[in-house]
């Protein structure tokens, strides 16, 4: 029987420098009985030349050969044109963000492909799991957000002349915790707000002083629904909106993005309450939304009152060596669950694997995608 081929793709999105499998992981994949075929230049942007992949035992091939492999790995979701038809039984692994492309997911599912998305582990299962690629990447982005802010701020974070800089982190999760840790390590006084009880405990353990939205940030802060109407904390789709902010030097928002038709976490009025020279970094700003009204993806702008607003996007891509190594570790951890005697076996009875499988054997297993497909189809008046 011919060896199962694992295809490593070169990332196609502008600014994406990561690679899904680093050369040191090729040996581990080969030990599982797979043959690695790497698209030419797949690791170049992350500092891994084709020669390193060849030395590790991979074959370097053209795009079409890597994209047509039995099992394809990619950091981001590839385009339909890159992959071509996904025949029955082929497997795609990556950060697929299935909720953002439900019709693409349906097309690939109809072709019989197995889609495994490394961003689908529930928070409880994700804790310390090597399969949780999304949390590892978010943590790296949180680190980079502080570095970017410190670079643009006109003072040291640990300023021995004027006192430590004041840093406010909005939102919990891996990005927020790592941002707190990094800012603290650089000498800043760090405050944080947001998240559930688990997130708040992690932020406190990382060294942040917790602040309550109404007491320390702004007494006028309120929870609003998708239409901007006041709501209670228990309602669906609620998010904080802050009309004003305390006099901090840096604000880093790691909260989930909101659509352009919803109120931003921090609006223009709130930005006007910050001092000139303050830096605001929106980690959520990208094609899926933003949390800072003035933020634009990949753009740094200065407001009329001198506040620097950075629409950071996916900052993990700007730490490509570390981020690629972390992602590669998650891929090899997944393969150790998936591959048996050189053959991928999708065992949906295995909890660690079942949570990640978006589609298999022609069936979409992701309830959120099914609901979104139904809603979008109904809105369009389609059967």
Describe the fold and architecture:
This protein is α/β, with parallel strands linked by helices and 383 residues long. The protein has 2 domains: 185 residues, NAD(P)-binding Rossmann-like Domain (Rossmann fold, 3-Layer(aba) Sandwich); 180 residues, NAD(P)-binding Rossmann-like Domain (Rossmann fold). The protein is 33% helix and 18% strand. The protein contains 14 helices and 19 strands. The strands form 4 sheets. The chain has an 8-stranded mixed beta sheet, sandwiched between helices. The longest helix is centred in the middle third of the chain and has 20 residues. The chain is globular. The protein starts with a strand and ends with a helix. About 7% of the residues have low confidence.
Could you give the order of strands across the largest sheet? 3-2-1-4-5-6-18-19
Count of individual helical segments: 14
Q: What percentage of the residues does DSSP assign to strands (E)?
A: 15-25%
Rg, nearest Å = 22 Å
Tertiary shape: globular
CATH class of the largest domain: Alpha Beta
Outline the low-pLDDT stretches. Answer: 214-240
CATH topology assignment of the largest domain? Rossmann fold
CATH superfamily of the largest domain: NAD(P)-binding Rossmann-like Domain
Under the CATH scheme, the architecture of the largest domain is 3-Layer(aba) Sandwich
Number of domains: 2
Tally the beta strands.
19
Question: How does the major sheet shape up?
Answer: 8 strands, mixed
Helix content: 25-40%
Average pLDDT works out at: 88
